Amino acid sequence: MKIEELNLPSEAINLYLQAGIEELYPPQADAVEKGLLQGENLLAAIPTASGKTLLAEMAMLKAIKKGGKALYIVPLRALASEKFRDFKRFESLGIKTAISTGDFDSRDEWLGSNDIIVATSEKTDSLLRNSTPWMKDITAVIVDEVHLLDSANRGPTLEVTLAKLKRLNPEAQVVALSATVGNAMEIAQWLEAKLVLSEWRPTDLHEGIFFGDAINFYEEQKFIERRHKEDTVNLVLDTIIEEGQCLVFDSSRRNCVGFAKKCAPVAGELLDRQKRNELEEVAKEVLENGETKLTETLAYCIKKGVAFHHAGLNSAHRRIVEDAFRNNLVKMICSTPTLAAGLNLPARRVIIRSYKRYDPNAGMQPIPVLDYKQMAGRAGRPHLDPYGEAVVIVKTYEELTDVLERYINASAEDIWSKLGTENALRTHILSTIASGFANCHKEILTFLGSTFFAHQQESWNFEELLEDCLTFLKNEGMLEQDNEIIRATELGKMISSLYIDPLSASKIIRGLEKTTHVTDMTLLQLICSTPDMRLLYLRNRDYEIINDYVMNHTEDFIEVPSPFKQIEYEWFLSEVKTALLLQEWINEKSLEKIVENYQVGEGDIYASSDIAEWLMHATLRIASRINPQLEKECAKLEKRIHYGAGSELMELVEIPNVGRARARKLFKKGYSSRQKLATANEKQLAGIVGPKIAQKILSYLGRETDSNGYVEPETLENKKQQKTFQDFI
Q: Where is the Helicase ATP-binding domain (predicted)?
């Protein structure tokens, strides 16, 4: 089917033709024949790189042509950013695209002036909770990675969000994009969608098992020259020599870093001078965006044309690695499986170094077939590679036969809803009532009956589970009942709007009511006691150190459980350990020191501080109702968590390009306020933060540079009158 034959705006067709897209892939043509451009609901369960994004784009363009809006829902912030960048190219057609991923208690009404809105499922849920007006104008809903309904963490939110959207906008077209799963038809039936099911790929996928010195494919063996004692290194070198790129998946962060370091010296020998020079520049960018030993390791690896990628890296480093791989500078990335589930980074060869993952309850366990298919599906770059290879490394013949049957000859598992637990339901029942989707027992059951969980478990009785949740929410003062009518109280509406688990709210309320002596640690441990906080693992060597801290700072904690209640006490110590990390963050301990002290990555520190900031904001809002004396303390701490700095630096860290480390340097040199910075000598300032940053700071503060580079200070009065971007957000 030719692109020119489609019922799309002529400008859009021209845009695709200019990009070299002239004909649809078979699964895309199947989708069009099943009504994609006539507003039919569709579920496309097709392999990676088979054109799912184009399906989504066509549905969105058609909806916008008819005067509607499109909502593109993704599971991860990184994926949201990638899609936002992709869709920005439609600006030439007069189509405006926006992205929304954070601030869960805002309505983001400004998004309504856009044609395409990209958001995570959590953000979409929060927009529905906050009754955002433009949500009713959505006429096309695209759900990327819908198979994540199976995820215990993200699945329930995605499921309830889709159920709400179907009810709010019953006429909106739903286009769901999925990996190939065992029960695709069941998901399609729930969505009332037609199913596009295909194994077709634009490049052939050869699945093999490396054993001995050869990759064993279905009909042939490919022998790999032994240039190194490590099998995986030989596979990487073979790929690079054949002018391909490869992704290596391993079970842990440490293994990923270790393998990249092992690969770097030999891979670097295959680089020409031009590539070396280009990679030197990329390595410099890495060093400019980090301050830990891992930063230096990553820069070293990138100079050699290899890299590692995992959630412990900061976002700048992840972006640099991804861009360098897309630009064919980095030839190999060793990653944890998170990369397979998220970003679109195809490669000639995918190497699965370990097909087992550590389970704290069961030790090393084989990964699900779906995870294998997701990783293997990254092999083969459309229009660039003649084929893709997915290779699993094994050590014994028994493993070879196991991998063949377990993965290569197997179909992906069915996916199952994870909504049917009190923990998952509690928050969604409150939000369903608070946002007006149901206001009595019967309506709540009707709404729950529209979920994927109810579709799968037809005989399941929600009654008992619902009663438990309603009883908890009423006892906590978040719901009230008048005869048959159930309403959210003002507290309940606020908790739903803040997007925190009602159990988190309950713990915060109890803590604020009990506390008489408040320190930073008091409030930090309080938010770390909530189920919304991601806790650090308590290692054996941590026990004595954290226990000693608790014994010496008992007055800082609202309540300390008895050490004789072992499980409860160890959980409490995990909360304290996490709170101590946050305390070091706001007290400006260097990132390197925090990484060393807690055995975490830079990315983990930022992730923890993001969650802590959100929970401290919620604590501030709750304190305003039940303990107003603590409002000021919570507000101050929320800001400090955001910037990772002391209170005296807040005026400085709010200036763009002045982070916690530069702010402390400036403060020590006597620049303790914006006013003092605004009248600073440029050369002296450059001596502290460097000439480029000095210019940016002074420019932001309203200093103009003449052609000779002289910076003219403004009067303080003029500065007070000048509005900046910060004033509008």
A: 33-199
- E strand intervals along 631-690: none
Domain ranges of the chain: 3-197, 204-408, 422-486, 502-644, 660-728
**Cα–Cα distance for residue pair 476/501, rounded to 1 Å:** 12
List of E strands, 77-186: 97-100, 116-120, 138-143, 173-178
Nearest to 500 by CA among 607, 426, 445: 426
Q: What is the structure's pLDDT at 340?
A: 64
Across the strands, what pairs with 175?
42, 142
| C-beta separation of 367 from 337 below 8 A | yes
Nearest to 260 by CA among 203, 314, 317, 301: 301
Determine contact, residues 158/143, Cβ cutoff 8 Å.
yes
Q: What is the signed CA dihedral for 334, 346, 173, 9, rounded to 10 degrees? A: 140
Tell me, yes or no, if the two domains 3-197 and 204-408 fold the same way: yes
Write out the binding residues: 28
Q: Provide the 8-state DSSP code for 342.
A: S
Q: For domain 3-197, which architecture applies?
A: 3-Layer(aba) Sandwich (3.40)
**CATH architecture group of domain 502-644:** Orthogonal Bundle (1.10)
CA torsion through residues 414, 415, 420, 423, sign: positive
- DSSP letter at 236 equals H
Residues in the chain: 729
Q: How far is CA 297 from CA 248, 258, 304, in A?
A: 18, 10, 11
Indicate the residue type of 137.
Answer: D
> SS in 3 state form for 381-407?
CCCCCCEEEEEEECCCHHHHHHHHHHH
Distance CA 509, CA 526 (A): 10
What are the tens digits of pLDDT across the range 298-339?
999 999 999 999 999 999 999 999 999 999 999 999 999 876
Return mean pLDDT, the chain. 91
Judged by phi (left if over 0) then psi (alpha if -120 to 50, else beta), residue 657 lies in left
Q: Which of 378, 337, 342 lies closest to 358 in space, CA to CA? A: 337
Residue 112, pLDDT above cutoff 90:
no
Task: Give the whole-angstrom CA distance, residue 62 versus residue 166.
Answer: 19
Angle at 576 between CA 572 and CA 580, to 5 degrees: 170
The angle at the Cα of 256, spanning 335 to 347, to the nearest 5 degrees, equals: 35
- Rounded Cα distance between 124 and 212, Å, is 50
The answer to whether the Cα torsion of 144, 146, 147, 150 is positive or negative is: positive
CATH number 1.10.3470 is the correct assignment for the domain at 660-728: no
CATH of the domain spanning 204-408: 3.40.50.300
Burial of 698 (0-12, 13-18, 19+ CB in 10 A): buried
Q: List 62's β-bridge partners, or say none.
A: none
Cα gap 144→80, rounded to integer Å = 10
User: Average pLDDT in the 486-490 region?
Assistant: 97
Whether 412 and 181 have beta carbons less than 8 Å apart is answered as yes
Say if residue 729's pLDDT is above 70. no
Strand pairing report for 173-178 and 138-143: parallel
Calpha distance 19→17 (Å, rounded): 5
Binding region for ATP: 28
